[in-house]
Specification:
The complex is a heterodimer of chains A (about 850) and B (about 260). Among the domains of chain A are: about 95-210, no CATH class; about 415-525 and about 715-850, no CATH class; about 535-700, no CATH class. Chain A has 24 helices and 25 strands. In chain A, the strands form 4 sheets. In chain A, strands 14, 15, 16, 17, 18, 19, 20, 21, 22, 23, 24 and 25 form a 12-stranded mixed sheet that branches. In chain A, strands 4, 5, 6, 7, 8, 9 and 10 form a 7-stranded mixed sheet that branches. In chain A, a hairpin with a 2-residue loop joins strand 16 (about 575) and strand 17. The relative contact order of chain A is 0.11. Chain B has one domain: Rossmann fold (3-Layer(aba) Sandwich). Chain B contains 8 helices and 10 strands. Chain B has helices at about 60-65, 90-100, 115-125, 130-140, 155-170, 185-205, 215-220, 240-255, and strands at about 15-25, 35-45, 50, 75-80, 80-85, 100-105, 175-180, 210, 225-230, 230-235. Chain B has a 6-stranded mixed sheet with strand order 6-7-8-3-9-10, with helices on both faces. In chain B, strands 2-1-4-5 form a 4-stranded antiparallel sheet, with helices on one face. Classes of the chains: A alpha+beta (about 850), B alpha/beta (about 260). The interface between A and B is medium-sized, with 29 and 30 residues. The structure holds adenosine-5'-triphosphate (ATP) and magnesium ion (MG).
C-alpha cells in the first residue's frame, strides 16, 4: 500500500508540483517576513552591544522621561566607582536633540538621532570613541564631533559650528577642536549625529548645575561577571536609579531607539506573515482538496480491489506528509533567501553592524506547521470523503451532485447576522471607547460569516457579473465553469476576500477622516499658516519653538494674529484620571476667533490661572460640567482648576485647554504649535516663507499653509493606507497563484470537455477567452465581496468615530475602489495566462481520447 | 481565418468526404505502427456508411483523419469541396464548426449545460441562429421533448446519446462522424439511436459515417466498409445483419487463417 501510494506520487507530477508550489509559496512568505523581522531586530541589538562592548554594568535613572530625572552627584559617582570589582567608570552627561546646523546653508542637519555629550578632556576609558584629529573640548565654546557629523554638517576642524542647545532652546556657535570616530574605524554607529561639549558646560546647560551626571557605565575587573558586579553596585545605588547588565541595557535601548521604526516595520512584517499564513492555508487546502477529489475514482478502484478504509485514507495522508515536508522545507529555504535579499536591500545604506540571518525556532516551527499540518488536514477531509463513498458508486461515471451548502450557510448566516448586529450596535449606540471593541468583534464575526456564506453567494454573484463580461458562447461557458463548483470558487477567492476587506475598510476610514478634516478646515477656520514642532518624544514643552518668536511673525505685513499652542502629554491628570492626550495651553479667547468653538455649557474665553475648558466627550468621561472645581496635575504640581466652559468637539479641536498662565507648570516653555491668521486677500505663500526663516533656528519645526496642515494631519493615515496596500499586494500575489493553481487543476480535470468543445468548433482563441473569463470572474467575485464588506465595515467604524467627534462625514473612496477592481481584473487576466496556454495547446484528438 | 474553407474545391465534388491513398503511421523505428495503408474511400452524400473491422484495424484512425481531427501521414483528404491537407488549426476549427458533426462513444456533453444548451452549443459557438422549425423536428425525432431542461447528470446513458445525436443533427453538417455511438448502450436504446440516425439520412438527406463492432448496428447503414490491418478489404451495400456477420466470419478466416 505504501509502495503504491509513493509510486502514485511520482506519477502525478504536474498536480503534485502544483501542490508543492502552493506550500512553498505560503511558507516562503511566512518564513521570509519572520526571518526579516527577527534579523532587523538583531541588527539593532547588535548596535547597542557595540556601544556596550567593554561595559559590564550601566546605571541609569529609573524614569528617564520624568520632568526632573534623577541625577548622580560627584560623591555618589565616586562611591559607585569604589565598588569592589569596578575597573573603570565612564560617567554620562548627555542630551537628545543637540542638532548642528550645516555650515553651507544654515539648515539643521537631519538625522534620526542628534546626541550631545559632555566629555572631560580625557580619552574614553571604555575605548569606544577615539579621537582622530585635534583634541577634546576644554573650553565652553569648543566642541568635538564625530566624522559622520562633520561630513553631514560640512565642517572641518578649526571651523565654527552652530548647534541647537535643547533645554536652553537656542542655537549657539562653537569652534570644532576635534574630530572623533569609533573603534574599528567607523564614522558612526547607526547614522547618528554626535556633538561633544566641555563637561562642565554640558552639565550646566543640560542638567542645570555642574557636578551632576545622568548615569554611568562601569567596566568590570577580570574575573568579575556582569551579574556579580550589578548586584554589588545595586547595594550602593542612590534612590531613583537602576543598574542593568550590558546585555539588559542593549536590549532596553534597542527596544527604545530602534523601537519606533523597527516596531512599525515589524508590525507590517507580522501583518505580512499573518496574511501569508491565512492565505496560505486556503491555498494549500484548496489545491490538495482538488487533487484528492480528482483521484476519487482511483481511490474507489483501490477500495474495490479490497483496500480498507484506513489503507486508502492512510495512503493519501502519507502522500500529503511527503508533499508537505518537501514543500515546507523548500519554502523555508526560499523564505530565508528572500529575507536575506530584502535585508541586503533595506540595510545596504544604513551603517548598522551586520549580523547573521536569524532563523528563530518559532519560524521553523510555524513553517512546518503551515506546510505539513495544513496539508495533512487539507488532504484528510477529501480522503475521508472519498473513502466513505461506496466503491461502486464512485466507479460509475456520473457527476456526483454537489454536497449541500445548507449546513455551512446556516452557520455562516448566524455568524454574519450576529456580526451585523454587533457592528450596528458599535456604530450607532453611544458607548464611548467600548464601541470599538464591540465593533471589532462584530466585524470579525461578520467576516467569518461572509467567508462561510461565500460558496452560497458565489453562484448568483458570478452569474450576475458574468452577464456583464461573459458575452458570446465561449464567455458563457467560462461563466458556467466559474459557477459550477461554488465551493472551489469561494475558497479560491478567499485570499482575495481577506485582503480586499482589510484594504476596503482602511481606505474608507482614511478617506472619511480626510474628508472630514478638509471640510472643517475649508469651512470655518481662520487659520492660514501652521507652525508645527517635530514629534520625537511625548511633547512636554521641552521641544518646539520659543513663543517669543511669534512676535516676529506678528510683525510680518498681512499677518492678523499669531497664536502659540503649548502641549504637555507627560504625567498630566485631571479629576484624578491620567490624561494620555495631555493638555493644551493657549489664549483660548484668541483660539475661538481662529477655530470653530461652540460652547455647550459655560463660556469660551481667555482663561486666567487655574481655569480650564474641555470638550463634551471628555467632560462626560470625567463627569465635569461648567462651574465645577477639580484637581489638575501638570508638571508634577497639583492645583485646583475651575471648569469655565464646555465646547463641542470637532475633528481638529478636542481635549482639555488651559490658559497661558499654566505654562509655568509645564516641564518646558516651548510652544508645540503655532497658528497664524492673515488679513483678507493676503497670499499665504510669501508669509510661509518668512515664517520659515524665523523658525530656522528650531530644528524640526515645520511651517506650512492650511493644505499642508491637512496633509500632515492625514500623513500617518496615508502611511497606514500604503502599508495596507502592500499587504493587499501580497495577498493578491498569493491569490493570483492560487487561482492559477485551481485553473490548471480544473483544466486537467476537464481535459475531455475541452476536447469536446474544440471538436464542436470552438477556436483556440475561444478557449483562451473561456478560461480568462473564469479566472477574472473568480477574482472579481473576491474583490466584490471584499469591497462590499470592507466599505461597510469602514463606514461602521467611521460612524463610531463620528459619535466621538473624530470625523464628521462618511466618505467612500470611489477612485481607490475602482483601482482595486481594475487591479483585480488585471490579476485575473494574468492568472489565466498559463492555464489558458496549456488548454490552447491541447491536441483535440488527445483530449477526446483522454482517460 | 485567411483560408475560407469554401474556396478550396477538390476534385470529385458530390462526395461528402473523401480519402485518397491515405496512409497513417504512428511512431518510428522499432515502435512504428502503420495504422492505415493506402486507403481510398468516398462517402456519398445522403448515405449512412458503417465502418467495420477487427479491433486495431484502423477504424477510429480512418475516421479521425477524415474528420480532420488527426493529420494524414500521406494522401489526400477532403470534406465536401474543401481539401483538408494543409489547413491550420484555425481552418480546421472553422471546418468543424461548419461542416462536421461528432458523436462519441461517451462523454459527449458538457456537464454545466442543459440538454437544450448542449444541443445548441455548436450553433452558439459558430454564432449562428438555430432554425426553430428544424430544432423542433430534431428534438421530436430523438424524442427528448420533456427532457430539454435537464443536465447530463440527470439523464440516462441512452438519453445522453440522444442529446449527442440531436447536437450533431441540429447544425445540419456536411457529414456526421460517429465512433461506436451505441457501444455503451443496451440493445433497445442502441436500436432507438440507430433508428434516428437512419431516419435523418432517409428523411432529411444527412450524411453519416459510423464506426461499429456490432453487425446488427451495421445493418442500419446503407453501405458497410470492412477494414482489416489498415486496408479496405470488402464492402457491402444495403446489408442485413446476417450478411454482415457472414462477411465478418469470412474476413476472420482471411486475416487469422483459422475459423473462430
Ligand atoms: N496515438 C497512437 N500512437 C501509436 N499507435 C496508435 C495510436 N493510435 C492508434 N494506434 C495504433 O493504430 C492501430 C489502429 O488503431 P485504431 O484506434 O484506429 O483501431 P480501431 O480499429 O479503432 O480499434 P478498436 O475497434 O479497438 O477501437 C492500432 O494498432 C493502434 O495500436
Ligand atoms: Mg476505435
Amino acid at each position: 500500500m505504501i509502495k503504491a501510494s509513493l509510486r502514485g506520487l511520482l506519477q502525478r507530477k504536474l498536480r503534485l508540483s502544483l501542490a508543492v508550489f502552493a506550500i512553498v509559496l505560503s511558507v516562503a512568505f511566512l518564513a521570509g517576513s519572520m526571518v526579516l523581522s527577527d534579523t532587523l531586530s538583531a541588527r539593532f541589538t547588535a548596535l547597542f552591544t557595540t556601544v556596550n562592548q567593554n561595559v559590564a554594568v550601566v546605571v541609569q535613572p529609573k524614569d528617564p522621561q520624568a520632568v526632573e530625572p534623577a541625577r548622580l552627584t560627584e560623591a555618589q559617582l565616586r562611591t559607585l566607582s569604589e565598588v569592589d570589582g569596578v575597573r573603570v567608570v565612564s560617567p554620562d552627561v548627555s542630551v537628545q536633540g543637540a542638532t548642528p546646523f550645516r555650515a553651507t546653508d544654515g539648515e539643521p542637519v537631519s538625522a534620526d538621532a542628534a546626541l550631545g555629550f559632555g566629555v572631560d578632556g580625557n580619552d574614553d576609558p571604555l575605548g569606544l570613541v577615539e579621537l582622530r584629529e585635534g583634541r577634546w573640548p576644554t573650553a565652553e565654546n569648543e566642541v568635538a564631533i564625530t566624522a559622520h557629523t562633520a561630513e553631514l554638517a560640512k565642517v572641518k576642524r578649526g571651523e565654527q559650528l552652530k548647534v541647537y542647545l535643547p533645554v536652553l532652546n537656542e542655537p549657539r556657535s562653537f569652534t570644532v577642536v576635534g574630530v572623533a570616530g569609533y573603534s574599528g574605524g567607523r564614522d558612526s554607529l547607526a547614522g547618528e549625529v554626535v556633538v561633544m561639549f566641555q563637561q562642565a558646560f554640558a552639565q550646566r546647560t543640560f542638567y542645570g548645575e555642574t557636578g551632576r551626571f545622568g548615569g554611568a557605565s562601569f567596566a568590570a575587573e577580570p574575573g568579575v561577571s556582569d551579574i556579580e558586579l550589578k548586584q554589588r553596585i545595586e547595594q550602593r545605588l542612590p534612590a531613583g536609579f537602576k543598574a542593568l547588565t550590558a546585555e539588559e541595557s542593549s536590549e532596553d535601548r534597542a527596544a527604545l531607539s530602534g523601537g519606533v521604526i523597527i516596531d512599525v516595520f515589524k508590525y507590517i512584517l507580522v501583518g505580512f506573515a499573518v496574511v501569508a499564513g491565512i492565505v496560505g492555508i486556503f491555498l494549500i487546502f484548496n489545491t490538495f482538496n482538488i487533487i484528492v477529489a480528482q483521484r476519487t475514482r482511483e481511490l474507489a478502484l483501490l477500495r474495490a480491489l479490497g483496500a480498507g478504509w484506513g489503507q486508502v485514507a492512510g495512503s493519501v495522508l502519507l502522500e500529503a506528509l511527503v508533499v508537505g515536508v518537501v514543500g515546507a522545507t523548500l519554502g523555508l529555504a526560499a523564505g530565508v533567501g528572500v529575507a536575506a535579499a530584502a535585508e541586503q536591500y533595506l540595510m545596504g545604506e544604513v551603517p548598522l553592524p551586520p549580523v547573521d540571518l536569524v532563523v528563530a525556532p518559532l519560524t521553523v516551527l510555524l513553517s512546518y506547521l503551515l506546510g505539513v499540518v495544513v496539508t495533512l488536514v487539507a488532504a484528510f477531509v477529501p480522503a475521508v470523503r472519498a473513502s466513505s463513498v461506496p466503491p461502486v458508486a464512485a466507479m460509475r461515471d456520473v457527476v456526483r451532485p454537489d454536497k449541500s451548502l445548507k449546513a455551512l450557510s446556516i452557520v455562516g448566516a448566524v455568524f454574519a447576522l450576529l456580526g451585523i448586529g454587533l457592528v450596528a450596535l458599535g456604530a450607532f449606540a453611544d458607548l464611548g471607547g467600548t464601541a470599538f471593541l464591540i465593533l471589532l468583534f462584530g466585524a470579525l464575526l461578520l467576516f467569518v460569516g461572509t467567508l462561510l456564506l461565500s460558496p452560497l453567494l458565489a453562484r448568483p454573484i458570478v452569474r450576475g457579473l458574468g452577464a456583464l463580461i461573459g458575452r458570446g458562447s465561449a464567455g458563457d461557458l467560462g461563466v458556467r465553469n466559474a459557477a459550477r463548483n461554488p465551493r472551489r470558487t469561494a475558497v479560491t477567492a478567499a485570499a482575495i476576500i481577506i485582503g480586499v476587506t482589510v484594504i476596503g475598510m482602511t481606505a474608507t476610514v482614511v478617506q472619511s477622516f480626510k474628508t472630514s478634516l478638509e471640510d472643517i478646515m475649508g469651512e470655518n477656520i481662520g487659520v492660514e499658516v501652521m507652525i508645527q514642532a517635530a514629534v520625537t518624544a511625548a511633547p512636554d514643552g521641552r521641544q518646539g519653538f520659543n513663543p517669543k518668536a511669534l512676535d516676529q511673525v506678528r510683525a510680518i505685513p498681512g499677518v492678523k494674529e499669531a497664536a502659540a499652542w503649548h502641549f504637555d502629554a507627560l504625567g498630566v491628570s485631571v479629576a484624578g484620571q491620567p490624561q494620555a492626550f495631555g493638555v493644551f495651553a493657549t489664549d483660548v479667547g484668541q483660539a475661538a476667533r481662529m477655530f470653530p468653538f461652540d460652547a455647550t455649557g459655560g463660556e469660551i474665553r481667555t482663561l486666567a490661572a487655574q481655569e480650564l475648558v474641555l470638550d463634551g466627550n471628555t467632560a462626560e468621561t470625567l463627569k465635569l460640567k461648567a462651574g465645577d472645581r477639580t484637581p489638575v496635575v501638570i508638571g508634577g504640581v497639583t492645583r485646583d482648576y475651575t471648569v469655565v466652559g464646555v465646547y463641542q468637539a470637532t475633528p481638529i479641536i478636542q481635549g482639555i485647554l488651559v490658559g497661558e498662565p499654566a505654562i509655568a507648570d509645564f516641564p518646558g516653555p516651548l510652544a508645540f504649535q503655532g497658528f497664524v491668521s492673515l488679513n483678507d486677500g493676503v497670499d499665504a505663500a510669501p508669509v510661509v516663507e518668512k515664517i520659515e526663516t524665523i523658525m530656522k533656528d528650531y530644528p524640526g519645526v515645520q511651517v506650512g499653509d492650511r493644505q499642508s496642515y491637512v496633509d500632515q494631519a492625514t500623513a500617518s493615515y496615508d502611511f497606514l493606507l500604503i502599508a495596507v496596500q502592500i499587504l493587499l499586494l501580497v495577498a493578491l500575489v498569493i491569490a493570483l497563484l492560487g487561482i492559477l493553481n485551481t485553473l490548471v487543476l480544473s483544466i486537467v480535470e476537464r481535459t475531455r470537455e475541452l476536447g469536446l468543445v474544440r471538436a464542436v468548433g470552438l477556436s483556440r482563441g475561444g478557449l483562451v477567452w473561456m478560461i480568462t473569463v473564469e479566472s477574472v470572474l473568480i477574482t472579481v467575485f473576491g474583490v466584490f465581496l471584499g469591497l462590499a464588506l470592507g466599505v461597510g465595515l469602514g463606514a461602521a467604524f467611521t460612524k463610531a468615530l463620528m459619535t466621538l467627534e473624530f470625523a464628521s462625514v462618511i466618505a467612500i473612496p470611489w477612485l481607490e475602489l475602482a483601482q482595486y477592481l481594475l487591479a483585480a481584473v488585471v490579476a485575473g487576466v494574468l492568472a489565466a495566462v498559463i492555464p489558458a496556454r496549456m488548454a490552447a495547446r491541447l491536441n483535440v484528438l488527445d483530449a477526446i481520447s483522454y482517460e | 481565418m485567411t483560408s475560407p474553407v469554401t474556396e478550396r474545391p477538390a476534385a470529385g465534388a458530390g462526395a461528402a468526404a473523401r480519402a485518397t491513398d491515405l496512409w497513417k503511421v504512428y511512431g518510428s523505428g522499432e515502435a512504428q505502427v502503420i495504422a492505415l495503408r493506402g486507403v481510398n474511400v468516398e462517402l456519398e452524400r445522403g448515405r449512412f456508411t458503417a465502418i467495420m473491422g477487427p479491433s486495431g484495424s484502423g477504424k477510429s484512425t480512418l475516421m479521425h483523419c477524415m474528420a480532420g481531427l488527426d493529420s494524414a501521414t500521406r494522401g489526400q483528404l477532403a470534406i465536401g469541396d474543401t481539401a483538408l491537407n494543409g489547413l491550420g488549426d484555425a481552418g480546421l476549427t472553422r471546418l468543424r464548426r461548419e461542416k462536421v458533426g461528432f458523436i462519441f462513444q461517451q462523454f459527449n456533453l458538457l456537464p454545466t449545460l442543459t440538454a437544450e444548451e448542449n444541443i445548441l452549443l455548436p450553433l452558439a459557438i459558430a454564432g449562428r441562429k438555430p432554425d426553430p422549425g428544424w430544432f423542433r423536428t430534431v428534438v421530436d425525432t430523438v424524442g427528448l421533448g420533456d427532457r430539454l431542461g435537464h443536465r447530463p447528470n440527470q439523464l440516462s446513458g441512452g438519453q445522453q446519446q440522444r442529446v449527442a445525436c440531436a447536437r450533431a443533427l441540429v447544425a445540419r453538417p456536411e457529414v456526421i462522424f460517429a465512433d461506436e455511438p451505441t457501444g455503451n448502450l443496451d440493445s433497445r436504446s442502441g436500436a432507438e439511436i440507430l433508428g434516428f440516425l437512419r431516419r435523418s439520412v432517409t428523411e432529411h438527406g444527412q450524411t453519416i459515417v459510423m464506426v461499429t463492432h456490432d453487425a446488427n448496428a451495421a445493418s442500419y447503414a446503407g453501405r458497410v466498409i470492412f477494414l482489416a490491418d489498415g486496408q479496405i478489404v470488402d464492402e457491402l451495400t444495403e446489408p442485413t445483419a446476417d450478411a454482415v456477420l457472414d462477411r465478418i466470419k469470412r474476413l476472420d478466416v482471411v486475416s487469422t487463417g483459422a475459423p473462430e
